[in-house]
User: Fold these one by one.
Assistant:
Number 1:
Amino acid sequence: MTQYFQIHPDNPQPRLIRQAAEIIDGGGIVALPTDSSYALVCRLDDKDAVDRLRRIRGVDEKHHLTLLCRDLSEIANYARVDNKQYRLLKAATPGPFTFILEATREVPRRLSHPSRKTIGLRVPENTIAQSLLEQLSQALIGTTLIPAGSDTPLNDPDEIRDSLQRQVELVIDGGSCGLEPTTVVDLTGDSPVVLRRGRGDVSLFA
């Protein structure tokens, strides 16, 4: 049975944040708002939950999932970041960007791109997402909530609950948060490459 929490977007209720964290710790998948669109998240070290998340999205292991991190210091645990990359990350985080970086050994092999050994990372500028990350004290694996066979993210919490009933353990209603996915930027080369234009301002990488 899918649970449904209405959480205040600016002042999240601590009790509900704790309950949401317990659901994730127990192997659950949660639909939550971010600064771009709604996303599906779960523990990064929970293989069963990650496999279920991929099935809901209809994507295989070649599709980059994203690590949601609290801040830049946490990103450094999962990706190799040089000084140039760090300056770009500092200018763009928190915000609606996903960065492709070389994964460290801290990232389970099944979560990085099978041929490139890269991972997508982001620091969301959303109070609910940040409160949940703080409560868990660890990064979460996530993906934009785009149903299999569609190219448009779901944005209405009631529609999300109806669409994903019994597929996810919790839907967090944090209000509308837009329909644009993140801007995806590959930082693994000599200069940034914008792979997908989304909500984030690409002029930062000109």
Number 2:
Amino acid sequence: MQQKETDLALITAVLAGQTAEYAVLVKRHQRFVFTLAMRFAKNREDAEEIAQDCFIKAYRALGTFKQTSKFTTWLYTITYTTAMTSLRKKRLDTTSINDDEYVLQIANSGTNFDANNVVEKKSTYAYLNQAINMLLPDDAAIITLFYKGEQSLEEIATALNMEANTIKVKLHRARQRLKDKLHYLLKDEVKELI
């Protein structure tokens, strides 16, 4: 709650002409905006570009923030729409994630770790992020917003311009797909333990 008040105070200061205060908002939320952008872009360069575009758009539209929802919900809505626009511009291949050949391509491209990162590869966090990256962008966004962003179903619905019940169903299905991806990634790990 304190951060929400602080965000609102910073927004008020920026709108009053203290534009340097916007850097505090950017610093506070840049990591999560970048994480969410990565869920869509799948590569660092595109995610950085999306995140930068989000903060520029948010700055330009700051006067339209109505304070009826949290600032983060408003910002993540901008992130989502910016990412979707970016993906449409790039016209990415929309092959189904259930296509076994496509899953193997993603798994192989996402597991290039050097010897120094072997410990990280075996960590639960690394497997979880790898599995999330294998999900479709919408599923990855919902999982990221719900668990990492700690957004409620209603806040996610607002950010993604959907009904809360739709988000609830999509979250349930995304969890199942995430479970399947983790099972796929960890099957070799389980074989090593046996």
